[in-house]
TrEMBL record:
InterPro entries: AI-2E-like. It is a multi-pass membrane protein. Belongs to the autoinducer-2 exporter (AI-2E) (TC 2.A.86) family. Keywords: Membrane, Transmembrane, Transmembrane helix. It is found in: Membrane. Pfam families: AI-2E_transport. Coiled coil: none annotated. This is Putative PurR-regulated permease PerM. The keyword Nucleotide-binding does not apply. It comes from Sulfurirhabdus autotrophica. The keyword Iron does not apply. It comes from the Bacteria.
Length: 354
């Protein structure tokens, strides 16, 4: 009886500790976001640096090489996507009045004849308003920079986070093994075996999931870019990259990519015939991702229902912002491992009492 009461007390202490930790995370969310993002990157890149270290490359040099690679990757994505989307926005401004005319001459009469709904749009007024707005905005940069300049603290916070992430990432990745060893030493010896088993299982599930999910994102980005290029879409590269990189959110990558591709195709092609290959590309991509790529590279390593995934993304996004979305699935994976451990202990105790 005394042992059982002691175990219950230990669980209460662990629950209290978890509750206090969650409360502190909530209070410190704005500060922790860049640290969380840097920690996720360091966790993903640690095996790569370990392999460099095994090949007699100093760890600091391996960390710097990894940072250079990531910097080149992010800058390349930015230089590819931003100019193309600014060009697409300009093209939309130029061609939208023609679509307004088509709506006024074709769709509006059909709506009036079938449903008695009368809609009137002035194409010249729309064109004048859009042209004036775009010229006054002066492009994408001219719209973003003044909004940042309106709040000096917001701009300072953005710059601090932009500088803080690589600094934290460097120190975390360089001293990752040392910090893990220190944390291991801090664990009380009577809990060490149980905590080590939990940490090992979490690391296995989390590592396989993150690296598998990144592989899925990259593979689907390549597929969508090539498929849309074969379909003849001018903006196949940025739309394919967006659709591929957002596949970690269930259905979001496909829906957003399909919407952007349809809008771009409507501006490029004269009729629906040109849009059919675009729609086929996304249909094949969705089947490929759901039936082959994700089961092959990720499988059921987390075991979360899609509704649970969406809830986790929204909840962590509310707490930590954009970086919380990145943290949602890894944290859910660790939480699921903990729940499995509790369930195993409960089943073992029940079978023992039986």
């Amino acid at each position: 009886m005394t042992t059982k009461r002691s175990d219950d007390l230990n669980y209460l202490w662990w629950l209290a500790f978890a509750g206090i930790t969650l409360f502190l995370l909530y209070l410190l969310a704005p500060i922790l976001s860049p640290f969380l993002f840097a920690a996720i990157l360091a966790y993903i890149c640690d095996p790569l640096v370990d392999k460099m270290e095994m090949r007699k490359i100093p760890r600091t040099a391996g960390v710097l090489l990894t940072m250079i690679f990531l910097a080149v990757l992010f800058v390349s994505l930015f230089l590819i996507m931003v100019p193309l989307f600014e060009k697409e926005t300009q093209l939309l401004v130029e061609r939208l009045p023609g679509y307004v005319d088509w709506f006024r001459t074709q769709v509006a009469p059909w709506l009036k004849a079938r449903f008695g709904v009368e809609l009137q749009l002035d194409s010249s007024a729309v064109q004048t308003a859009l042209a004036a707005h775009w010229q006054s905005a002066g492009g994408l940069a001219a719209k973003v920079l003044p909004s940042l300049g309106n709040s000096g603290m917001a701009l300072v916070g953005l710059l601090v986070n932009a500088l803080l992430v690589p600094v934290v990432f460097f120190y975390l990745l360089r001293d990752w093994d040392i910090m893990v060893a220190h944390i291991d030493e801090m664990i009380p010896r009577r809990w060490h075996a149980r905590v080590s088993a939990l940490a090992k299982e979490s690391d296995q599930v989390l590592g396989e999931f993150l690296r598998g999910q990144i592989s899925v994102m990259l593979l689907m980005a390549v597929f969508y870019s090539l498929a849309l290029w074969i379909a003849g879409l001018e903006y196949s590269l940025p739309i394919g990259i967006i659709a591929g990189l957002l596949v970690f959110v269930p259905y979001l990558g496909m829906i957003l990519g399909l919407t952007l591709a349809t809008l771009a195709g409507a501006m490029q092609f004269q009729g629906l015939g040109g849009l059919v290959p675009v729609w086929i590309a996304f249909g094949v991509g969705q089947l490929l991702e759901g039936m082959i790529v994700t089961p092959w590279l990720v499988g059921e390593r987390i075991g979360l229902h899609p509704l649970a995934v969406i809830f986790a993304l929204m909840a962590f996004g509310q707490l930590f912002g954009f970086f919380g979305i990145l943290l949602a699935l890894p944290a859910s994976a660790v939480l699921l491992v903990g729940l499995r451990q509790v369930r195993r202990k409960y089943m073992d105790s029940t079978s023992y009492q039986g």
